[in-house]
Amino acid sequence: EAMIETIDHLPETHVPAGVRLYYTGLEAKLGPVFGPEETAMAVLPGSIHPSRCMMALSEGHLVGILGIHDARGSFLAPTYKLMAEHYGTIAGMYRTSLLMLLDSNVAPGDLYLDGIAVAPTYREQGIGTALMTAFEQRARDNGFATVSLEVIDTNTRAKRLYTRLGYHEIATHSMGPFSRLFGFRTTCRMSKMVD
Asked: Parallel, antiparallel, or unpaired: how do β-strands 53-58 and 61-70 relate?
């Protein structure tokens, strides 16, 4: 079992690897917004807030990343200007609105988990759980009463993990006509008390 160290932000040196892991781990959601991968890698480094994030290191390697959304905003928040620069005016507007579709309202007193990704070669080693534990501790330390997240219907492995960690389903959101574009029909909102 590798020694896992969790850090409460994404240091500048780890930004390229961090955004790549985040993007590839959440490609079902982020692909339609930021794809193709090459363009995504050009846009994402300037679109993130490194403080709204937790990362996991194993022997100095970035092996996991978790985005956080609080009242101030989310981990991934590209400006329209940046989107237009990379995708053009119309496509930039369209992609920005797609991202807003995926965006969740965060209630006061709730810290929202904005996506988690673990490097494929490091899965099943407790990294996801370590990141979730650190995330819940951060919520507690900052006076949040609950933590919540959304999981897509096609990601059964993640849903099992969340259930095992004590998260309960509170709502289901349908993607409606956009389900064909994203490749999943619903997202399930799950929540847990931490205080």
From this structure: antiparallel
